[in-house]
Specification:
Blueprint: E1 2-6, H1 10-21, E2 25-29, H2 33-40, H3 51-60, E3 64-67, E4 76-79, H4 95-107, E5 113-116, H5 124-135, E6 142-145, H6 155-160, E7 164-168, H7 172-179, E8 196-200, H8 202-233, H9 237-245, H10 266-279, H11 285-311, E9 316-320, H12 335-345, E10 349-353, E11 367-368, H13 371-380, E12 383-386, H14 391-394, H15 398-402, E13 409-412, E14 425-427
Parallel strand pairs: 1-2, 1-4, 2-3, 4-5, 5-6, 7-8, 9-10, 9-12, 10-11, 12-13, 13-14
Helix pairs in contact: 1-3, 8-10, 8-11, 11-12
Bound molecules: uridine-5'-diphosphate-xylopyranose.
C-alpha cells in the first residue's frame, strides 16, 4: 500500500522504515528542510541500532522517500510528529498534530485513513475526527489511534516483534483496514510471540500508551526507592530484584535500579497523564508519588557522589554515560544532567564521556566520545561515576581500574561492574 508519514523524527522514521520493510511504499514528510536533507544524504538526524542498514536498503529499492512536500497519493496517512510539553506546563502542545492534519486534509483523496502514531492526551483523536468531519465532510476521512511502543535502542525489534498492536477508532471496520498494514509481520520468522491486536475506542487506545509508560515509571521508582533502603539494611538490591522478579506477577524486567528514569517519553507521558486526570478533577496519587520519587532519587544520587568525594577530598570526577540509557544518543531528561548540576555546584572538576556522538554545539558541556579520551579520563580523574549502562563500560577491567593509584572511588549507578569487594567500589542498592 501507499503510505505517507508526517514527521521524520524517531517514531516517524522507524515506523516508515518498518512499513517499507513490510512491503509498503512509504513517503516521509517533514517541514524541517535540514532534517529531510540529512535523511536524503544518508546522515540521519537520529541514531538507532540498524537504522542506517535499513535506510540504505529501502531508499535504494525506492520503497521509502523523504520530502518536505507530499507528492504521493496515499491511502494511509500517519501522523508521527512531536507533541512536546507546553513550556512551563504539563500538557501536550498539539500544534504540530493539527498542522499535519490540515496538510493531510489538503493532499488526501476521499476515504483516506489518518493514523495517529504521536502520543496524545486522552480525547485528542475524537476531537480530530470531529475536526475532519467538519472541515472536509465530503472526503469521509477516518481517524485511527495507533500508539507506538518503541523503546529507543530497541526500536526495530519492538516494531517487528510487537507485544501488541492497539487500534482505536469509532469504526471497527476502519481499524481492521489499518491492521492489514501489519499483516506481513505475522509471516516474519523473527516473531517470538503471536501478535496481539486490540481493537478499541479512541480514548482507551490513547490511554493504553500513557498508562503503560506511567506503570513502568512507577515500577522503576519503586525499585530505586528500595535500592536506597537496601544499602541501609545490608541487603543487595540485585538479589532483591532477582528474587522479586521470579514472581510472574511482578516480572524481572524494568526492575533494575539506576540513577533515575529519563528519556523523551516517561517524564513527558507521566506528566501529561497526571495533567489529563487533574483536568477531569481526579488524581493519580501513585503516579504522582513516582514522579516526585524519581526527582528526589536523581538528587540523592548526586548528593551521595558529592558526599563520598568530599570524604575522600578529591576534585576530579569522570562521569561515564550522558545518554538517558544505553543504545541511544538521546540524552533528554537524562539523570546525567542532574548529576552534572549538583557536582558543578559543589565545584568538582568534571570530565564527561559517552560512546555515541553528541551534538556538542547545543551544550556548553565538553563531552568526549572517543575511546582514547575515555582512557585518558580513567588515567587522570580521581573518582568515576557510571551513569549509563553502555557495553563499552561493562567490558572495562574494573579490577585493574580500582587498583589504579589515581582512582579513589568508582560509583556504579547501574550495577554493571563485577561484584568485587573493594573499599573504593560503591554499587547502588548495595553500599550506597
Ligand atoms: C519507553 C517505553 O519503554 C516504550 O514502550 C515507549 O514507547 C517509549 O518510552 P524509552 O523511553 O525508549 O521507551 O526507554 P526505556 O527503555 O523504557 O527506559 C526508560 C528509562 O527507564 C530509562 O531512563 C532507563 O535507563 C530506565 N530503566 C529502564 C531503569 O532505570 N531500569 C530498568 O530496569 C529499565
Amino acid at each position: 500500500m501507499k503510505i505517507t508519514i508526517f514527521g521524520s523524527g524517531y517514531v516517524g522514521a522507524i515506523t516508515g522504515i518498518g512499513l517499507a520493510k513490510l512491503g509498503h511504499k512509504v513517503e516521509i514528510v517533514d517541514i524541517d528542510k535540514s532534517k529531510i536533507s540529512q535523511w536524503n544524504n544518508g546522515t540521519p538526524p537520529i541514531y538507532e541500532i540498524g537504522l542506517l542498514e535499513y535506510l540504505n536498503e529501502y531508499k535504494t529499492s525506492g520503497s521509502i522517500s523523504f520530502t518536505t512536500r507530499s507528492s504521493q497519493e496515499s491511502k494511509f496517512y500517519f501522523i508521527a510528529v512531536g507533541t512536546p510539553t507546553i513550556e512551563g506546563g504539563n500538557s501536550a502542545n498539539l500544534d504540530f498534530v493539527y498542522s499535519a492534519l490540515d496538510n493531510i486534509i489538503k493532499v488526501s483523496s476521499k476515504d483516506s485513513i489518518i493514523i495517529t502514531k504521536s502520543t496524545v492526551p486522552v480525547g485528542t483523536n475524537k476531537k480530530m475526527q470531529e475536526y475532519v468531519n467538519e472541515v472536509s465532510a465530503g472526503k469521509n476521512l477516518k481517524i485511527v489511534s495507533n500508539p507506538e511502543f518503541l523503546r529507543e535502542g530497541n526500536a526495530f525489534s519492538d516494531f517487528f516483534n510487537p507485544d501488541r498492536i492497539v487500534l482505536g477508532s469509532d469504526s471497527l471496520e476502519t481499524s481492521k483496514e489499518v491492521s492489514k498494514l501489519y499483516k506481513t509481520l505475522e509471516l516474519s520468522s523473527n516473531l517470538t510471540k503471536p501478535i496481539q491486536y486490540l481493537f478499541t475506542d479512541f480514548q482507551s487506545a490513547e490511554l493504553i500508551k500513557h498508562a503503560s509508560n506511567g506503570f513502568l515509571a512507577i515500577k522503576l521508582s519503586y525499585i530505586n526507592d528500595l535500592a536506597r533502603y537496601c544499602s541501609l539494611v545490608g541487603a543487595d538490591v540485585s538479589d532483591l530484584s532477582k528474587g522479586m522478579g521470579f514472581d510472574p506477577r511482578i516480572g524481572d524486567r524494568f526492575l533494575l535500579p539506576g540513577p533515575g528514569w529519563g528519556g523523551s517519553c516517561f517524564p513527558k507521558d507521566s506528566k501529561e497523564l497526571l495533567f489529563s486526570a487533574n483536568k477531569v478533577d481526579t488524581d493519580l496519587p501513585v503516579l504522582c508519588a513516582a514522579i516526585e520519587s524519581n526527582k528526589a532519587h536523581k538528587v540523592w544520587c548526586g548528593q551521595q557522589i558529592s558526599k563520598i568525594a568530599i570524604e575522600k577530598s578529591i576534585l576530579k570526577i569522570g562521569i561515564l554515560g550522558i545518554a538517558f540509557k544505553a543504545g541511544t544518543d538521546d540524552s533528554r531528561e537524562s539523570s546525567a544532567y542532574d548529576l552534572i548540576d549538583i557536582l558543578s555546584v559543589n565545584k568538582f572538576e568534571l570530565s564527561l564521556h559517552d560512546p555515541k556522538a553528541f551534538d556538542f554545539s547545543n551544550t556548553d558541556l565538553k563531552i568526549t566520545n572517543s575511546f582514547n579520551d575515555l582512557m585518558d579520563i580513567l588515567d587522570t580523574v580521581e573518582g568515576i561515576v557510571i551513569n549509563t549502562e553502555w557495553t563499552e563500560y561493562y567490558n572495562l577491567d574494573w579490577g585493574k581500574i580500582l587498583n589504579k593509584d589515581n582512582i579513589k572511588f568508582v560509583i556504579d549507578l547501574r550495577n554493571i561492574t563485577p561484584r568485587l569487594e573493594h573499599q573504593n567500589l560503591y554499587r547502588i542498592g548495595y553500599n550506597i
